[in-house]
Design a protein that fits this description.
five-stranded mixed β-sheet, D-Maltodextrin-Binding Protein, domain 2, single chain, alpha/beta, 3 domains, Arc Repressor Mutant, subunit A
Length: 302
């Protein structure tokens, strides 16, 4: 039997973790066909099937699960061993992979990333922006950025970006002139509202809070979209009211394309956090990023 390549074994673990060739390819920055070819090559060399493939899912065979169970820690040890070479460098080097919400990628990370990469030119940063909650380690990421309610308890989490954010509600002047201005969240059931859908298919209700009182509304409207650009464009066009991150609406509010509504009811919440596993041997690029964020926090406070 010809010994399989390490890259093919790594491809097997990646596909099995993602349960999809396409998802694994996106995370690794390669084509799905290249991963498929790697698995076919591996199975041919081993003389047995490693993955069961259907149109809906990809799952390990009994042999595949056995091999993957032994490979995962071994590949982790190899990565750790290679990373120890960073101690011989003047500055950390390597690749840091982050999974972040789209709002963080669009409105929060840019200045942080620019300063970090200028400080550590030997580090390559790969950022995947998605609003789907995933197991970042199983998906091949070093760390993630999320909000408190979606961070696993066994993770270490530190603040990154704004310490507090809020959702703001707004409508185009043309819409408000034609349909009136809601005075209470309950009034929204009589208005057209533009809503967000997560990649999972979940459409969250709108939550408002005032003096400790929480009001949840499941409004209706002409548009449900997964992208903020479509939602914002529809709101500015006067198709309905919008309720989302203040950062996404700030420019439109400042130039008058949108007008604020229900201001006393806007809900504030804790800002995002960088989270990562507790490891005795943390990869050098991740350690550098964590130290950079902590140092930036101290400088901002000082």
């Amino acid at each position: 039997m010809i010994e399989p390549d390490l890259s093919d074994l790594s491809a097997l673990v990646a596909v099995a973790r993602a349960r999809s060739f396409r998802a694994a390819a996106t995370l690794r920055g390669v084509s799905a066909s290249s991963l498929s070819e790697a698995i076919r090559r591996l199975e041919a060399r081993l003389g047995m099937r490693m993955l069961n493939r259907t149109t809906r899912s990809v799952t390990p065979t009994e042999a595949g699960a056995l091999l993957i169970g032994r490979l995962s820690p071994a590949l982790g040890e190899i990565a750790t061993a290679l990373d120890t070479l960073n101690s011989l460098r003047d500055s950390p080097a390597g690749t840091l992979k982050l999974n972040v919400p789209t709002i963080a990628a669009q409105k929060i990370l840019s200045p942080i990333v620019n300063r970090f990469l200028a400080t550590y030119p030997g580090i390559n940063l790969e950022i995947s922006a998605t609003d789907t909650f995933i197991d970042v380690l199983a998906a091949g990421f070093d760390a993630g950025i999320r909000y408190d309610e979606s961070i696993e308890r066994d993770m270490i989490a530190i603040p990154i970006g704004p310490r507090s954010q809020r959702f703001v509600a707004a409508g185009a002047p043309s819409y408000l002139a034609a349909h009136g201005k809601p005075e209470h969240p309950h009034d929204l059931v009589h208005h057209a509202c533009i809503r967000h859908r997560f990649a999972s298919g979940y459409v969250p209700p709108w939550e408002f809070e005032r003096n400790g009182k929480l009001v949840k509304i499941a409004p209706n409207g002409p548009l449900i979209a997964t992208t903020a650009e479509l939602q914002l464009g529809a709101a500015i066009a006067g198709l309905g009211l919008i309720y989302t991150f203040e950062e996404l609406l700030q420019d439109a509010l400042e130039r008058g394309a949108l007008a604020p509504i229900l201001v006393p009811w806007w809900q504030s919440f804790t800002g995002p956090r960088l989270y990562y596993p507790s490891r005795k041997h943390m990869p050098a690029p991740l350690r550098a990023f964590v130290d950079f964020i902590k140092s930036s926090e101290k400088n901002d406070q000082g």
